[in-house]
Write a structure and sequence with these properties.
- The chain is mainly α.
- It has helices at residues 27-71, 78-88.
- The chain has two helices and no strands.
- Mean pLDDT is 76; it is low at 4-16 and 101-105.
Amino acid sequence: MKHGSGIKSNSSSIGGSGAPRSNIGGTGRNDVRLEEMNAQLMEVRLTVDGLEKERDFYFGKLRDIEVLCQEHETEQNPVVQKILDILYATEDGFAVPEDGEGDGAMLSPPPDVEEY
C-alpha cells in the first residue's frame, strides 16, 4: 500500500502551524480569539460613539452659526457672506440636496440628533 494516497486524516495542520486539528483541544484557543475579537469590537463601538457625539457637537455649533448668519444676511455684511460661502462650499464628489428636499436649510441635522 502506498503512503501518498491523497487521503487526509484529522491530524492535518491548521494554517501551517503544524498543530494537529482537534475539536477537543482547539476550543480554548478559539475562545481566547473570540474574546479578543469581542474586545476589539467593543473598542470600535466606543470609538464610533465618541466620534458621533463629537460630530453632533460640532454640527450643532455650525448650525447655530448658519442661523445667526442667515438672520444678518440682508445687511450685506461681507464677513457674514464669507461665512455663508464657507458653510455652503462643497467638495468634489459631494452632492448638494436638490430644491424641495429638507426644510429649506442647507445644513440639516443627521438622523437621531437632539437639538441643543
